[in-house]
Write a structure and sequence with these properties.
Blueprint: H1 8-34, H2 39-45, H3 55-60, H4 67-77, H5 90-101
Helix pairs in contact: 2-5
Amino acid sequence: MAIAEAPAPQRLRALEQANRVRSGRARLKREMATGVVTAADVIEQCPYEAETMAIGELLRSQPSWGPARCSRLLLSAGISDGRPLAALTERQRRDVVGRLRG
């Protein structure tokens, strides 16, 4: 029994969506590197391209933020490095944003 393939239009829509997300993340990372936007801004606003991004990946995208600094902040906030931004509770968002801005 052969596995049915998804119709071409559905596959193409999925690829287009994935490309939009990748391009959006690259744009966010460039804006963070140049100081146009901060990680705290991204966490607060949680744009569609960042919803499935791991919080650790976002924090490490900031200038001068390596794995150790990122791990310290997330450990103190009680958040897993791989947790997607959209999965953060409102309390966790406020906590991380406060730590980043404070």
